[in-house]
Amino acid sequence: MNHLRCRTCGQTYNPNEPVWRCTCGGLLDLHFQAEFPLDRIQARPPDLWRYREALPLESDDHIIIIALGEGFTPLLPVWIGDKSIWIKQEHLFPTGSYKDRGAAMLISKSAELGISRVVEDSSGNAGCAVAAYCARAGMECDIYVPADTSAAKLAQIQMYGATLHKIAGSREDTARAVLMAAEQYYYASHSWNPFFFHGTKTFAYEVCEQLGWTAPDTIILPVGNGTLLLGVDIGMSELRNAGIIPQKPKLIAVQAAHCSPLAQRFFKPDSEITSPQPTIAEGIAIAEPIRGEQILDAVRNSGGTFITVSEDEIKTALIQMGTQGFYIEPTAAATIAGIQRYLATAPPDEVIVSVFTGHGLKATEKILKFL
Ligand SMILES: *Cc1c(COP(=O)(O)O)cnc(C)c1O
Ligand SMILES: [Zn+2]
Predict the structure, then answer these.
(1) Which ligand has the minimum distance to the alpha carbon of residue 8?
(2) What confidence tens digit (pLDDT) does each residue in 10-37 have?
(3) Quick one: pLDDT band at residue 1, thresholds 50, 70, 90?
(4) Which of 140, 141, 315, 317 could form a disulfide with 134 if both were Cys (CB 3.0 to 4.6 A apart)?
(5) CA distances, 356 to each of 166, 196, 249 (Å)
């Protein structure tokens, strides 16, 4: 029942083997039967491990060692223009971004697999999260980042004791460098490794539980590699298959106009993609998302769409959130700018959920430039 399956050739693997990619080079998905015993769930502490029967771990042994109290972030109503939207406060995670959901799950699984050293590449927040949980697990960790990553994130990764590799060039150059290292060590990748998505899926469980075990009509999410969007899609599918919610919400995917390969493919599949320009939304500046097809399918099948936002819209949204008492990073503000655009043509009376993905303290140097 429980297996990893290649999206390209269909080959299957035992999830207790340390594989992160098919021998054919294809992406793997984890097929897993999630269960939701609501009485038991609600009797447990408010963290993401309360959904234990929906998490693909053989035992609790490694959770206990690595847990940092992650999950069950507040779902708060926030004014966006004249409408109040439910915003999940994911910047309040132990390392300052929702990436802790995926890292807590993946590093617990890595410990269960007996792995002692992992490699990961990131534009910052995934590297911080993987480095923190490796520190908890006593695992060695090498993080590859683009050389222009925010200084605060570089400091954070090093403080957790990870070995930092700064790679000159684009985000894709960093991805190439880590693939070489991944021939030798386990690749704790937030885009390749299917266990990461079985951590981020807990966002969907928490939202539904916090709304009284109902699903919102619409979820508005940022998209670079799609670690949150694909996790939410998995989580909502599992809740629907278990009969907890009648149908999955519509997914609205937000990209920065300066780096919007998926939005372009969504609206103009036959046109050439314009080359990316720098954006202050560094966390979603992914020119070649490896799960691009999967993201496009998830958005399309949900009846959703893509929205792109300009640099000015991102800055305005960032400042507006600050004046309401929320200090978030510019990447997180891109999503808020996307909500503003969505609301201009949204059907009335929808229940909408969105997210603050990262903390403002991550991007102090960039934010100083706006003051
Ligand atoms: C990772 C991240 C995102 C979403 O990026 P994906 O590449 O789609 O996973 C959004 N905001 C912040 C702050 C992030 O760290
Ligand atoms: Zn394959």
Answers:
(1) 2
(2) 999 999 999 999 999 999 999 999 999 9
(3) low
(4) 141
(5) 27, 19, 19
Ion ligand 2, residue ranges at CB < 5 A: 6, 8-9, 11, 22, 24, 26
What does pTM read for this prediction?
0.97
Query: What are the pLDDT digits (tens) for 140-151?
Result: 999 999 898 888
Nearest CA to ligand 1 atom 2: 283
Helix axes 202-210, 227-241, angle to 10 degrees: 60
SS3 of 47, please?
Answer: coil
What does the pLDDT read at residue 150? 83
Give the number of the ligand closest to the Cα of residue 232.
Answer: 1
Cα–Cα distance list, 295 to 101, 256, 290 (Å): 19, 16, 10
CB 127 less than 6 A from any atom of ligand 1: no
Tokens representing 111? 């410990």
Number of other residues whose CB lies within 10 A of the CB of residue 264:
17
- Indicate the burial class of 363 (C-beta count within 10 angstroms; 0-12, 13-18, 19 or more): buried
Q: What is the pLDDT of residues 231-246, one digit of tens each?
A: 999 999 999 999 999 9
Identify whether the C-beta of residue 133 lies closer than 8 Å to the C-beta of residue 66: yes
Tokens of 25: 């080079």
Could you tell me what percent of the chain has a pLDDT over 90?
A: 91
**Cβ distance 70 to 101 under 8 Å?**
yes
Q: Give the residue with greater pLDDT, 96 vs 65.
A: 96
- Which has the closest alpha carbon to 91: 187, 219, 222, 210? 222
Taking only the tens place, the pLDDT of each residue in 169-218 is 887 899 899 999 999 999 999 999 999 999 999 999 999 999 999 999 99
**CB of 245 closer than 6 angstroms to any ligand 1 atom:** no
Instruction: Using the mean position of ligand 2's atoms as its centre, give its distance from the Cα of residue 5 in Å.
Output: 8
Report whether 197 contacts 160 (CB < 8 A).
Answer: no
- The pLDDT of residue 65 is 87
C-alpha to C-alpha distance for 200 and 162, rounded to whole angstroms: 22
Q: Which residue from 110, 166, 164, 158 is spatially nearest to 138, judged by alpha carbons?
A: 110
The kind and range of the H/E element at 143 are strand 140-146
Tell me the C-alpha distance between 367 and 19, whole Å.
40
